[in-house]
Amino acid sequence: MYWVEVQCEFQCRACGRLSPINYLDLDGSVRCLYCGLDQAFARASWTRALDHAHALGDLGAAHAESREPHAWLSIARENPMKGKTSAEDVQSGMVSERGMQFPTSLRIDARLREPQCQACSVPLVVQRQGPGQVHTTCPRCGTRDQFAMPIEAPGLCAGLRAVIASEHSTEFKPTRVQCDAAHPEAVTLECPGCGAAIGMNPGTRLAVCQYCRTTSRIPEKAFARAGADAKQEPFWLAFDGPSLLRKQLLREPGVLSPTTPLLEAKLAEPPVRKRPTAVELGLMVALPLVLLALYAFVDLVLLADYVTELPF
Length: 312
Ligand SMILES: [Zn+2]
Ligand SMILES: [Zn+2]
Ligand SMILES: [Zn+2]
Prior knowledge:
Number of helices: 6
Number of strands: 20
Structural class: alpha+beta
Oligomer: single chain
Bound molecules: zinc ion
């Protein structure tokens, strides 16, 4: 399992600004953190973004032949992630899903970086709890948290194993959000423990009730409507297994064609076979010779005096 840090944003269809998406928002809509407008968002946009992050983790940095190199096919020459520690992907145009057309404008910036404590910027100690669940501890400030991945997530990207984002925390209950029908743009926040009104503190997503001391987490979608500034926060995705890009580079049958025309043109040619290295060639010649010598030694030296008397 390896981690990829991502930052995502989309262009709002009402105000035109680039609004951050700070978690895997898979409910079919996203909310602009500037103007508060909810807008339809295709899951297919997430599929492509997740495949992009998976490809960087699998094929980036020193993994030119991927994390699990193929026995005799080489993908290093064609690997677009070769040597990279960060890669951006921008989607635009329309995607079709469930027979409908959705505009997409998702931008994802992926980088090879371990999950960090938001407060101290040091790598977190991460433990796997169960499928899609991780437990984190900050070695400096000692803050503990746990995260659960949305159950639909593996259906969008088979290699996705876990996600670390404030919104997916299961450690704290979400703050209750009350809407006033007369003023739909304004919301009030209530403690999930006692129902008392609570205010927001700048710089943190956590709110502590002044009556019952319950700590709750303010949902991102309530954040903008409660008057907070839109803030880009990185989140982390853990992957395992071969990425879609690796399968494409290996020309695995039945794999979707790549979205970039440049890569598509390259993949029209057959894959490159690896050249055996000097060590491998040496072994290919030396190994049979060694076996032959061993056989000769056993036959001539050890069995030299042993003569079988045949019964006829
Ligand atoms: Zn907007
Ligand atoms: Zn910390
Ligand atoms: Zn309370």
